[in-house]
Amino acid sequence: MIAARATAFAPASVGNIGVGFDLLGHTLAGLGDHAVVTRVDAPVVRIEAIEGDVDGVALLPLDAAANTAGRALMELRERHGITHGFSLRLRKGIPLGSGLGGSAASCVAALVAANALLDQPLTRAQLYPLALVGEAVASGSLHGDNVAPMLFGGVVLATATQAIPLSAPDLYCAAVHPHFVLETRRARAALGEPYALSQFVRQSEHLALFLTGLARGDRTLIAQGLRDVLVEPRRAPLIPGFAQVQAAALDHGALGASISGAGPTVFGWFDTQAQAHEAALAMQAAFAQVDLPSDMHVSPVNGPRAELVEG
Amino acid sequence: MIAARATAFAPASVGNIGVGFDLLGHTLAGLGDHAVVTRVDAPVVRIEAIEGDVDGVALLPLDAAANTAGRALMELRERHGITHGFSLRLRKGIPLGSGLGGSAASCVAALVAANALLDQPLTRAQLYPLALVGEAVASGSLHGDNVAPMLFGGVVLATATQAIPLSAPDLYCAAVHPHFVLETRRARAALGEPYALSQFVRQSEHLALFLTGLARGDRTLIAQGLRDVLVEPRRAPLIPGFAQVQAAALDHGALGASISGAGPTVFGWFDTQAQAHEAALAMQAAFAQVDLPSDMHVSPVNGPRAELVEG
């Protein structure tokens, strides 16, 4: 018998991982969004409520078509000929506009919960294109660097048509989120001016080193590659104290440190959990120097995927 | 006892491999340049002669500082405190201006031969920065996508500071060289106009798929990645018949096909040697349609490295 209601949790994520703009991401353990989905007879998708103790929740759209989670469930119904509908409650745990993939997490949690209510559940790979369409409501473009790691766990290479989980050594991520909102749209606008081929070549070199390092479990190559010379220079000025926060991470042994997603969260990769924890405290202190309170998250780089949970 | 004279052969190469501009290259078996180096007491580098039955050899500079091979040997002397000198003869086998790495091959062959005459020979990794400096005489910039595979063999990721050999499945390359000269400088000038971030993201996606495919020996990923959407569209108009030649390669089963180095040689990667051979004939026929005679080369993608040979 098919359940009438399911709850899923999707973790936060670090989009781009500095060097893989719109292409690479990994999940973070701990922080995340919940979706409670109920199967209803009416052939519609309804959002009953969006809750959670993060700022701005009241401003999120309850119109399903304008919400990443609602839009994804509409796409699920349309593409797969689902005759019944869904009613949806979201419980936000990821701060809005933090660069930690909040809009993607709601979308993926809703898909994973709704999938459990289908007569014939889909694979994660089948959910991926639906998540891309949902996520596009927030960002305006199809990019899977947040939804792909949430669906598959760990570090994922996300293209427009497929999500490819990548092996990675047992490293740890420190992500420090300063308490101000950087709108994705503003962060994207900073990237509009054209680029020189030489910048592209250097960034590609870093991407190639990073991917080769991941494939070989070679931390030296990962560290050589984990440097964003293309996007970070344009976005860093939007984040007060960025240079000092990045320096704090590197001073505490980061293999590399950059902006998570569209920011303002700053992340670093570290060899050990203890190192990541120490670095996170130093990164918080650097944000405090520019009067920004912050919260910190330490997680294995090989973070969890979205899963069903007890309601 | 140290020999007084050594001869080395360096193979031709496919620079860029379409999707790794200035970063990726692989060697081709068969075609290549020879360097005969003699150890001399005078603390200088002299070029005695440049020979070979390729067009334009008489125009190549005999001034050591203006020649990729001469310049590399000068750099070898300076960086490593070599007190004796070298006298150099080059025998060109790679057509000039073909996009098959001719200037790089002379440079690498000279280094490998000279290295055998040192009291304390260097490693290939130590020769790499010297080859970069030599190659820069021809191209004006430090990029190792030709010299790196020549020094190490097979497919290599070449950065400004290191050459990283990459594993690749047993694929075959067909390279078809139409008989007209495309000057590297002109081919580079076509790339000057700035680029949009979206082009960069798509090319990065292909690079990531290609590298992941190489690391896993996954031909499907390699085929998905082997598409140059950044450089090829700007250079293709400089090569008469390019679209038809590329189509001929793809019609004959190429995983991908693009421009070798700065062109005008067009290459494709194939599953089998027989396929590569059939495709090469079709590619030649397509060049013949625009009245361009051509020569063809079929080689394992995992081609040889430069080696000492009998004088």
UniProtKB/TrEMBL annotation, chains A, B:
Its main location: cytoplasm. Its EC number is 2.7.1.39. It catalyses: L-homoserine + ATP = O-phospho-L-homoserine + ADP + H(+). One of its GO terms (molecular function) is homoserine kinase activity. This is Homoserine kinase. It comes from the Bacteria. The gene is thrB. ATP binds at P95, L96, G97, S98, G99, L100, G101, G102, S103, A104, A105. GO terms for cellular component: cytoplasm. It is found in: Cytoplasm. Keywords: Amino-acid biosynthesis, ATP-binding, Cytoplasm, Kinase, Nucleotide-binding, Threonine biosynthesis, Transferase. Pathway: Amino-acid biosynthesis; L-threonine biosynthesis; L-threonine from L-aspartate: step 4/5. Catalyzes the ATP-dependent phosphorylation of L-homoserine to L-homoserine phosphate. Belongs to the GHMP kinase family. Homoserine kinase subfamily. The keyword Secreted does not apply. SUPFAM superfamilies: GHMP Kinase, C-terminal domain, Ribosomal protein S5 domain 2-like. GO terms for biological process: threonine biosynthetic process. Residues 67-154 form the GHMP kinase N-terminal domain. PANTHER family: HOMOSERINE KINASE, HOMOSERINE/4-DIPHOSPHOCYTIDYL-2-C-METHYL-D-ERYTHRITOL KINASE. It is an enzyme of class 2 (transferase). The lineage of its organism: Bacteria, Pseudomonadati, Pseudomonadota, Gammaproteobacteria, Lysobacterales. Residues 212-288 form the GHMP kinase C-terminal domain.
